[in-house]
Amino acid sequence: MPELPEVENIALALKKNLTGRRLTGLQVDFAGVLAQSTRVTRGALVGKVLTHVHRHGKYLILGFTGDDGTQAFLMIHLRMTGQFFILDGFIPDQHVHLAFDFDGLLVHYRDIRKFGRLELVEDGIAPAALSHVGPDMMKVRFSEWHRRIGSRRAPIKALLLNQGIASGLGNIYVDESLFLAGVHPEARPCDLSEETLREVLKRGKQVMRLAIKHGGTTFMNFTNFHGKPGNFRRKLRVYGRGGQACRDCDSVLEKIVVGGRGTVFCPGCQAL
User: Fold this and answer.
1) Is residue 176 annotated as part of the catalytic site, yes or no?
2) Is 117 a catalytic residue?
3) Catalytic residue check, 58
4) Is residue 77 part of a domain?
5) What is the domain extent for residue 175?
6) Is 121 found in the same domain as 8?
7) Residue 54 domain flag
8) Is residue 270 situated within a structural domain?
9) Is 261 in the active site?
10) How many Å apart are CA 184 and CA 158, to the nearest integer?
């Protein structure tokens, strides 16, 4: 699933390539990815200029402005396999469900599993549809994050995945963040010091900044706006390496299940 770094790379590409361009057409081959009807979506967006791109956690919100000043906002959640890209000479396959025409520049939305959703919302920053989502993990301050998580008794791995506490971290970057912080994934925040929790948040932001720099992580389907995979996979210390040696202490990395998710950690560097 695309996590915050992957979505941020898409947001940056959309801003760079499409800001100021007018949406002149919208081809819909599978309307199931749209929350509203094709007619309503076209009516709200076509003819307007893309003026605003905002990311909150794993969500994108595109803002469009008409010549008369009217605005419309399209919220995008890529879920598991959603992709946006532009490729010269691209021939759409059966997994391309939408094609946005920005003054002759085609941007394709491809989603193998069809779980992604594109929804018209009423606001470009904090729509009601995101009221259940916590603050963005890259922007949240420690005091607010600590208030939300510090006294909790559930495993910290599960709480970091809880998008209602803070939004953006997924399985890959939680494992990496906890390794760098030296915290066991089954540790409970209520048992950890404020200093240790501050380190967890610091390392989470550090990992995401590095992943953004390297274009995100690709294991299966993620590619950037131009169809290129992310290369942060080469930087992974624990995720996907269960049974291999820790690069810091040579302990064998263990794989367990926490909160229903496969989890890899180092028993030497992350003692419970």
Assistant:
1) no
2) no
3) yes
4) yes
5) 142-265
6) yes
7) yes
8) no
9) yes
10) 12
